[in-house]
Amino acid sequence: MDEINSPTDEQAALIRITLEGRKMNYPDRYDQENLLNLHKAKMSLEQAIDLLNR
Question: Distance between CA 31 and CA 35 in Å, rounded?
Fold first, then answer.
């Protein structure tokens, strides 16, 4: 988890517009989708760790 860190302001903005359904043109869309998948994985890991610590 420490290696993932929090997204930069630019990454957070990109995640936000992706969640709104806006897509970038290829080949930038690959980076956009990879960033969103990494963010989703981090959120899932944080939830799992939180559940295990209860």
Answer: 6
